[in-house]
Amino acid sequence: MSPPQDASPEDQPDGRMLTSLAEIPVQRVNKIGDKRAEALAAVDISNVLDLITHYPRRYIDRTRQADVAGMRMGEESLVLARVDAVRTRRTRQGRALVELDVDDGTGALRVTFFNQAWRARQLPVGTEALFFGKLDSYRGKRQFTNPVVDLVGNRTGRIVPIYPTSEKSGIAGWEFGEWVEEALRRAGTLFDPLSARWRAELELMGRTEAFVAIHAPQSFPEQERARRRLAFDELLRLQLEVVMRRHVLERDSLGIRHAVVPSAGAPALVDAFVGQLPFPLTDAQRRAVDEISADLAKALPMHRLLQGDVGSGKTVVALSALLVAVQGGHQGALMAPTEVLAEQHYLGVRELLANLVVPDPERLGGSRPLAVALLTNRTPAGERAKLHQGLRSGSIDLVVGTHALLTDEVRFSSLGVVVIDEQHRFGVEQRNTLRAKGRDTSDGGGADPDLLVMTATPIPRTAAMVFFGDLDVTELDELPAGRSPVRTEWARTEEAEKAAWSRVRAEVAAGHRVYVVCPLVDGSERIQAKSATEERTRLEASVLSGLRIGLLHGQLKAADKEGVMESFRRGDIEVLVATTVIEVGVDVPEATVMVVEDADRFGIAQLHQLRGRVGRSDRPSWCYLFSAASTPDAQMRLEALERSNDGFELAEVDLELRGEGAILGTRQKGRSDLKLASLRRGDRPLVEAARRVAESLLAEDPSLEAAPHLADEVRLFVGEAEAAFLLKS
Ligand code: ADP
Ligand code: MG
Predict the structure, then answer these.
(1) pLDDT interval class at 583 (50, 70, 90)
(2) Pairing state between β 108-114 and 96-103
(3) Quick one: which of 42, 457, 487, 621 could link to 614 by a disulfide (CB 3.0–4.6 Å)?
(4) Residue 32 domain flag
């Protein structure tokens, strides 16, 4: 591939800025009047930049156009046909149904739309349109159900772009295409932030050409080259943001050189802790502890992501980091996303650290037990006040908690290390709030704590680079020895379910424990809790009669939850019927069976996480996924779980199936400016290239002073507040 010809930005350094296009209302484009502008506003397009970055959702190849007469059953085809009749009615379930009779001169076809009442307005009798769909038949009639539709207008191109939502807004694809063409023509040469040298090296086309080609490609390879270029720009903006964020943190940082090797007279807490563990560290844990220790010893605060599969033993690694802080006379904080998890971490931490002591000159003997506290929203007011006091005075060494740690009242004497568990549930802002508590100590002489964030299940490398690009990464790529892999079975039939319940009984009889995760129901936590309660009653009265069954859901009081978990641990409860509150982190080694009802309602990561609640000892374990679902998507998910126990592998599958939302949820995805770039494996080289370019640009010019246009662009796309903070100083 040779670099394509285009107007070089070096000849015309004043190409038009994307930021300036954002200031031109769509009405300034010929043919877009107020009415059209209103329709566009309804799909969030108000300026020229919105217009040209509203990319086609797919493309139809008109050379592959077929005749109605020649179409074959079950095959996807594209036909150009005229609407002869339109009927609108409702199905028995009350869904809108629009039925068209269309004809292309070779034959007739029925076209049926469900829940798309607007199609009747879009496709009145006499309209000529392209229909792309899979031929099926209904009551002996050949038909398309919910096909892709495009009004051709007078477009002649071989490749027809199909725009998302343009039909719904009453705007035809050809119209939209014309506006974009007009807008791009008037805009002329666009400013290209990428130098000719980088473009040549990375084989990326020019920006102007890419915008033209993405909307009106001459060929599919050209379309892909355009996508690559514009996707690169999206990734570059994000990488500039994360690399700058990293630089700002480092530049302004006031770190702590932690006493990784305890100074004379100080307690060797990490050694004592590791020494008293009932197991040796895995090699991976040892490597992780070493990497983290090296960070902690440095003056720059650590920003590290600890990735590891379910059960790889992240907690021990995190604790040893926290203990480094304590052995140097600082405090540690561990934040978890849910109360159940925080409570469990607290219990676990207290147990693991039970025999450790720290110096205390005010006490007889000069020492006291290491103090661990739990802070959640359910901590009673009186206790909370005492706890706040203890954190301020330094009499509490480690605090485990939820979001409650983020409130203003929480101030530390000297916060040395922060660990955030299940980072994907927290935003960057929350991460920063907790970090800031290191600086803002009770005596005003604070520093920036070292930060370790952990993920519950692995995140694919590409995605980690994009969304956690400001963090260094440590991977725990090894499970503790002696774990037998969980046998996973997708129970599709009643027979299979029966077999699962007998396994449950057999395991209980053998003294082991069982989880049953209830179907996910829509609605509030309250509704979910009610449904779990009913499920428990049902199981007790049927397949699980005679067993000691407990119930755990989010609506229980903290003390009750703790009580239930305690009984389950002891074995007073044999089967725990639960909602997904047990999803993350819950650790009862005697549990050997996990039953997930309506498993198709859960995502891959969630199922893997649930499955991770068993197989936590050397006893054989089972995971049964109940589901009669037959959608291809559900099948792929459940089969993936059956096939693989490897969280890194499953994360990739999840990403392939669901895209970036799989990792971050929609909120963060929304502001991430990824319209064309994908975090799927295919774009990994592009992500790496963007990282390289960002680092190189910022190495020469840390706040993009010499590239104000690019800085403006990052600010525009990446989120005003965030980028303003990064670029201001
Ligand atoms: P996760 O990485 O999923 O958070 P945990 O930290 O909860 O995993 O550890 C899972 C279980 O494995 C815990 O019961 C923990 O005590 C145990 N564990 C951790 N490290 C080891 C090890 N090196 N050898 C044996 N068991 C370990
Ligand atoms: Mg964990």
Answers:
(1) low
(2) antiparallel
(3) 621
(4) yes
Q: Is 456 helix (H, G, I), strand (E, B) or coil?
A: coil
pLDDT at 666 over 50: no
Instruction: Say what angle helices 604-611 and 632-643 make with each other, to 10 degrees.
Output: 30
Distance from the CA of 281 to the center of ligand 1, in angstroms?
9
Average pLDDT (542-551) is: 94
Q: Tokens representing 519?
A: 């179907």
Specify the amino acid at residue 432: N
Task: Collect all residues with Cβ–Cβ distance below 8 Å to 726 and sequence separation of at least 6.
Answer: 241, 244, 245, 248, 703, 714
Q: Are 450 and 471 in contact (CB under 8 A)?
A: no
Residue 704's domain spans which residues? 239-478+668-729
Q: Which of 140-154, 186-200, 687-701 has the lowest mean pLDDT?
A: 140-154
Helix or strand (DSSP H, E) at 90: strand 76-90
Q: Decide: 438 and 445 in contact? Cβ < 8 Å.
A: no
**Weakest mean pLDDT among 200-209, 392-401, 535-544, 698-707:** 698-707
Q: Is residue 649 part of a domain?
A: no
Are 517 and 597 in contact by the 8 Å Cβ rule? The answer is yes
Q: Indicate yes or no: pTM above 0.85.
A: no
For ligand 1, atom 10, the nearest C-alpha belongs to 311
State the residue for tokens 């932690």.
258
pLDDT at 310 over 60: yes
Does residue 224 contact residue 707 with C-beta atoms inside 8 Å?
A: no
Closest residue by Cα to atom 23, ligand 1, is 281
Location of structure tokens 């499920």: 535
Percent of the chain with pLDDT over 70: 92
Residue 352 C-alpha to ligand 2 middle, in angstroms?
A: 15
- DSSP SS3 for 348: helix
What distance in Å separates the CA atoms of residue 659 and residue 661, rounded to the nearest whole number?
6
Q: Distance from the CA of 314 to the center of ligand 1, in angstroms?
A: 7
| Residues 306, 381 within the same domain | yes
The residue type at 694: A
Q: Does residue 659 come out as left (phi exceeding 0), alpha (psi in the -120 to 50 range) or beta?
A: left
CATH code at position 455? 3.40.50.300
Q: Would 655 be classed as within a structural domain? A: no
| CA within 13 Å, CB half, 121 | 9
Inter-residue contact 199 to 140 (CB < 8 Å): no
Mean local confidence (pLDDT), 228-251: 89
- Same domain? For 216 and 345 the reply is no
Chain segment 230-241, per-residue pLDDT in tens: 999 999 998 998
CB crowding 635-653: b at 16 or more within 10 Å, else e = eebbebbeebbbbbbbbbb
Query: What residues line ligand 1, using a CB cutoff of 6 Å?
Result: 279, 281-282, 285, 308, 310-316, 480, 587, 589, 616
Cβ-contact 128, 87 below 8 angstroms: no
Tokens for 460? 């694919």
Q: Give the contacts of 649 (CB within 8 A, at least 6 positions apart).
A: none
